[in-house]
Amino acid sequence: MKLNRLITVLFLALFFMSFYMEAEAVRPPLKPLNSEQFHKMIADADVIATGTIVSMRLSKTLQPPLETVNIHVTMVPERILKGDRLTESITIRESYRQFSADDIEDVPDSRYAMEKPVTARISGPAPPVGRYRDGDRILVFLKSIGGLNQYSPLGSGNHDAYLGVFWITSDGVKPDRYQFDDVVTGHAKSEVSFLNFITLIKGE
Q1: What is the distance between the alpha carbons of residues 196 and 44, in angstroms, rounded to a whole number?
Q2: Which of 171, 164, 118 lies closest to 144, judged by CA?
Q3: Which value, in Å, is the radius of gyration of the alpha carbons in the chain?
Q4: Of 34, 50, 104, 138, whose CB is crowded by the most CB atoms within 10 A?
């Protein structure tokens, strides 16, 4: 009985994954982020901040052939360019659904949950969410999702929107899953220059 159930779930997962992969394969990439679009991101964000990731946790709920992956990130802000500058901790929450036939257990209501501090296993096209690791420094553009200091990045869950998560590296500020145009790239060559660019746009 369990074997038949597993075979059925595997078949459904592969069947739906084939359509999903085909749809994603023809999705055009986002155009490079330009100054006008960057202005809009700054205006739309409730919070703009740099900081260090101190905790990243995943939880999964299985509903064959899909699973919902929830991302829970805690960031300690270093500099808050927009929002409450006295904030000492920021919670980032994201979620996405993907096809999966792994880690199936015979539990009540066919639901399976797990929590572990590792990077999500991703099959096929990457979901439109941030990629986080403990200790990484990031710049985030966030929208409030209710609750004390709980937010989701701009563009989270939307393949056609610019994700408001940027990596801060020794080579400057880097976007994820898309590129900057030449003008924005010029400001992103260093963290200081990019933050000054944001401050200039905000009119401070």
Answers
A1: 18
A2: 164
A3: 19
A4: 138
Q: Is the pTM of the predicted complex or chain greater than 0.85?
A: no
Rounded Cα gap, residues 4 and 22, in angstroms: 28
Do the beta carbons of residue 163 and residue 177 sit within 8 Å?
A: yes
Angle, vertex CA 84, rays to CA 141 and CA 73, nearest 5: 50
The one-letter amino acid at 171: D
Residues 6+ apart with CB under 8 A from 8: none
CA distance 57 to 117: 5
Q: How confident is the prediction along the chain (204 residues), in pLDDT tens digits per residue? A: 555 555 555 555 454 454 444 444 456 889 999 999 999 999 999 999 999 999 999 998 888 888 889 999 999 999 999 999 999 999 999 998 887 655 444 333 333 334 433 333 444 556 789 999 999 999 999 999 976 779 999 999 898 999 999 999 999 999 988 999 999 999 999 999 999 999 999 986
What DSSP designation does 180 have? B
- Calpha distance 92→131 (Å, rounded): 12
The token pair that represents 64 in the structure block: 């064959």
> What is the bridge-based pairing of β-strands 137-144 and 165-169?
antiparallel
Place of tokens 């946790």: 57
| Helical segments of 29-134, H only | 35-44
Q: At residue 39, what is the residue type? A: H
